[in-house]
Amino acid sequence: MDGSDSGTGWRLLRRHRRINVNQGTLGHEEANDLRVMLLGMVDDPRVVLIKLADRLHNMRTIYALPPAKARAVAQETLLIWCSLASRLGLWALKAELEDLCFAVLQPQIFRKMRADLASMWSPRNRVGYSRRITTIVSSPPLDERTASDDESFTTFDEHVLSMKDLLEAVVPFDILSDRRKRTKFLHDLAKSSEAQKKAKVVQDAGIALTSLVACEEALEKELLISTSYIPGMEVTLSSRLKSLYSIFSKMRRKDVGIHKVYDARALRVVVGDKNGTLHGPAIQCCYSLLDIVHRLWIPIDGEFDDYIVNPKPSGYQSLHTAVQGPDGSALEVQIRTQKMHEYAEHGLAAHWLYKETGNKLQSISSMDESDIEASSSLSKDTDDHNPLDTDLFQKYSSLKMGHPVIRVEGSNLLAAVIIRVEKGGRELLVAVSFGLAASEVVADRRPSFQIKCWEAYARLYKKASDEWWCQPGHGDWCTCLEKYTLCRDGMYHKQDQFGRLLPTFIQITHLTEEEESEYWAVVSAVFEGKPVDSVVSRRSSDSVAPTSMEASINNKVRLLRTMLRWEEQLRSEASLRQSKLGGKANGNPDSVVPGEVVIVCWPNGEIMRLRSGSTAADAAMKVGLEGKLVLVNGQLVLPNTELKDGDIVEVRV
């Protein structure tokens, strides 16, 4: 496919989208043009980068268009270009495009949300702030506002904001990612505000950016003071503002007020690990930094997630915590190693992948990480039976004796195992091995190394059982039993002999079905005195690094499959909208499916288009090797095997 075909696809797609934007449909011709476009992009990804840059410029200057045309362009951008930027991992560009579209399509809501966030993050909130996040009264969801609220949304007066002011209130993505540009932007904004009265929505955007800078500087200062907690590791700090469109989508999706969107602003701390050679110490540093953050700002109950010990299904790893920032409003802090960061940004753990697997498809119109005194945040919640407690108890009610856990105290991670479960999972008795550091256990997840970890946990469990240790304090010079209590913050905190709760906590290790089966097989072997080698691992052996040619083709395959999934999403959304409008193709997603299948030929990586329903035999005939053996996705298949989009096909000579 040459560049002219790809360019034609882009132009036809834009023309058809302008025609059909109000109907929200996707016809056969447009669906075909969409496929031509994405296949051209797979062959040369630079094409789409140029198109995205051009679209960003158009959206920044869209105020020059008539209102009706501007809305059509914004709807098209939100439907296609924002989705595509997300698929390619261009998060910052996607966020700016979303907000520009949001400002055009929902100007009143855009202005109201800017004002609400500016009120929450205003510098005057930093003086004498003493309230906790649990005392904040949430604003009602957008679709539950009073009639007077709705009237304020839709009524314009003589001072109505111009479209240019709304677009100026969208902070450019390059300013958010560059400190020097950000400082200059705020300086110029303050200077221009003094010279001439800036629109309130623009001033509110400046307040939001200023609050983010204040949070970043506060944490940076604390990290410099607390260098003793960081064992010579290089730490990089960055920040971001969640797009107003994403906040709006989250409020609609979760039916909450804006105060309950805890990740509206976020800091990210990345710990250097010398290209993975110091991954274990870097993980220890992550937990040390978590301790620093929780000492600096009050954690928000139930908003800590440990994706290092328990990675997401996609492999994403990071520590996520929400705290009350310097102005008393919510602030999310993400902490990860450089290796984890690179995998999250460029590997299989791309944000859209782990986001979309848990969310149902929504239409565009509704869419959318030393001991202290016990405080209320670590209190044993024995009297207040709120929904949080119910969810937590259900989550941990299935815990069993012998289950592996990680003990976290500052930067020290130790292996531990549950000895007894009490009060339906509210309290745990845990055996801790002070001679078994767990940072390497978390860092190295190769199957061969994991078996050794399971064996260490099993021997610790057997030791505690053989010695009949059954009370807190029991143990020897390297092993001790400790009591842990489930607290309101969603974590099991250590309880000392006086009943006080301490910052030390344990993180439950979540096992997949395969890992759980393997772990208990190892435990059985240890208790029966059998060699662990007798346990046959059902996991696949460690993968072998592909050659440069294979890596290139694999990247092409991944990009193709990504684009095909994106195409499927657009087609499904179009079908849903058409169904709601009562069109002829009501409830029939196949009405916009192109009559072809796209495959990748191995080993040259050529993209081949065949008619729908084509088989392995058809692919062999297409390449002039009729009657030869065909492998699909590495497996030998029968000639009549039907091919699917994104299949890798190899015809054996």
Brief write-up:
By secondary structure, this protein is of the alpha+beta class.
Instruction: Please describe the biggest sheet, giving its number of strands, its sense, and whether it closes into a barrel.
Output: 6 strands, antiparallel, barrel
The number of helical runs is 21
Strand order of the largest sheet: 6-7-8-9-10-11
Strand content: 15-25%
Structure classification: alpha+beta
Number of strands: 16
Shape: flat
Distance between the termini: 26 Å
Mean pLDDT, nearest integer? 75
Radius of gyration: 28 Å
Low-confidence segments, ≥5 residues, pLDDT <50? 19-25, 127-160, 348-354, 356-388, 537-549, 585-592
Helical proportion? 40-55%
Protein name: GTP diphosphokinase
Describe this structure in words.
The structure is a single chain. The chain has 653 residues and is α+β, with helices and mostly antiparallel strands. The protein is built from 21 helices and 16 strands. The strands form 3 sheets. Strands 6-7-8-9-10-11 form a 6-stranded antiparallel β-barrel. A 5-stranded mixed beta sheet has the order 1-2-5-4-3. It has a 5-stranded mixed beta sheet with strand order 13-12-16-14-15, covered by helices on one side. A hairpin with a 5-residue loop joins strand 9 and strand 10. Helix 4 (67-87) packs antiparallel against helix 20 and helix 18 packs across helix 19 (513-527). The chain starts with a helix and ends with a strand. Mean pLDDT is 75; it is low at 19-25, 127-160, 348-354, 356-388, 537-549 and 585-592.
